[in-house]
Amino acid sequence: MRLSLRQLEIFVAIARAENVSRAAERLALSQSAASSALVELERAFDCPLFDRIGKSLHLNATGRGLLPLAETLLAGARDIEDYLAGGRPGPLNVGATLTIGNYLATLVVADYMRRHPGSPVQLQVANTDTVVDRLLRGECDLGLIEGEASHPDLAIEPWLDDELVVFCAPGHELASGAPADDATLARQPWILRERGSGTRAQFDRCIGLRLGDFSLCLELEHTEVIKRAVESGLGVGCLSRLALREALRRGSLVEVPTPQFALGRRFYFASHRRRHQSAAVRAFRAMCMAFAGGAESTAALPLPFIP
Fold first, then answer.
1. Of 98, 297, 101, 105, nearest to 196 (Cα)?
2. Which of helix, strand or coil describes residue 279?
3. How confident is the model over 212-229, as pLDDT tens digits?
4. Which residues have CB under 8 Å from 146's CB, separation 6+?
């Protein structure tokens, strides 16, 4: 063969980093070794893979076509190594949105690490837009997302049902347990997730459009900070019932009934259609399904106490 797996590994690293020195650092190579391997690959087929503009490298059409093929081949090679090494899953990088990452994915990762102690796993927690971007860039192997994603390069599969809940502090005027109408909700100061999150997208679609010119008091990136702000009486919020589970149980927050809104949603598995699903991805996904234990929604999950 006129190419090697090492050359393809270096090509993929450079394509993702768009920089030879950063790619070499990730692979523990010298910059000259990485650059030489790329040049040898291009010369072997008399086929440039990058446009070189100044000191920058940008994939050309041939390189863009090669990238998913190279990633699939390298993933298959890792599976072979895992098999020959005794079946141990290879490295795994999971991207999870904040609600899933904080309340579910960490539990699955802990179980995965106990079962596969020699298999490195990373969990990156961010909003839906960021997780989707990382999937498309090949920076994570599997996404667990709570927002809608419709990119043609993504495969989306349902995992669990969930729902959003409007909530307030126990001393708030809406804490009586009576349903709140649209006019009353529109007068409230709202404390919400940032744009780009699945939770915020559903709020805007299901509640925000109905309320019109409502008062947005704060936009925050973390569910726990939102819960504390609402507890302190700054306004009302809207988060996953999963994130509010213990706070509602102990009474530090109170659900505001809003039957006029359809707040049900789903959690999804997301993956790149053109990337090989490694043994590690398959094992982790199977553990997510086993973790659900047959439950169809987050409300039915047998979760440990979450303070």
1. 98
2. helix
3. 889 999 999 999 999 999
4. 97, 99, 100, 128, 162, 198, 199, 240, 265, 266, 267, 268
